[in-house]
Amino acid sequence: MTPRTVLPLVLAAVLAAGCSSVDFWKDQFSAPTPPPGLRTSDRQGEPAQSAKPAEPAGQTFDEDVELARTFTERYWRQEFQAAGKTYRPLQKFVGYSGDGGPDCGGQPALPENAFYCPVGHFVAYDKDWLRSLYDESGDGAVYVIIPHEIGHAVQAQLMSDFSLNVQRELQADCYGGGALKGLIDEKQLEAENGDDEELLANLAAAGDPTDAWWRPDAHGTPVQRQQAFASGFTKGVGAC
Ligand SMILES: [Zn+2]
């Protein structure tokens, strides 16, 4: 089986089964050996990624975080262009430690969190927290959380309106799944064995710390979040 066939199969199974996955993370990822990472492809590499075309990129936490940001924004730039719109890049992309994060419109950043701030049009993440997820369970955490936050940046630009916060959150999950699939289809990323489990586990168990100070209970159940992500992944962002 080629790696690229793995994700859709498992995501489809989740969609069909709607399995309860509250304890998925702890059950599946207590092993000390992290799974291999998502890799950039050496085929049709763009100049910006061609410095080491035959090498798998994103072999460190810092590389994966930067790639997740760069690739996701590149994806959305193309999507906006195709729709006759112009994507506005993030103003800032900030890693912080503990209490030292940037405030958002007067609201302090929380430790163990990641968020999009519409006031400054930036994404910030607790890098120690995200790194601990990465070390624990592989790079799936990075490739779920960063695209999710950038999904909120997309919503802001599209001026998407929601009556419930949970709708906003689930759409961001859907956008994350759709962007990731788009990048895999474009050969920017290749899924590897274990990636599907990482992605789904992070959706189920890492929860959505983003925006937690606004509506802490309205981010969707683990199953809802997995299904939203899978929906984007299988149908594309147009279905979100
Ligand atoms: Zn969110």
TrEMBL record:
Protein localization: Membrane
Signal sequence residues: 1-25
Region feature (Disordered): 30-61
UniProt key word Transmembrane: yes
Principal place of residence: membrane
Record key words, sorted: Membrane, Signal, Transmembrane, Transmembrane helix
InterPro entries assigned to the protein according to its UniProt record, in alphabetical order: Uncharacterised_pept_Zn_put
Membrane topology designation: Single-pass membrane protein
Source organism superkingdom: Bacteria
Protein name: Neutral zinc metallopeptidase
Species this chain originates from: Sphaerisporangium corydalis
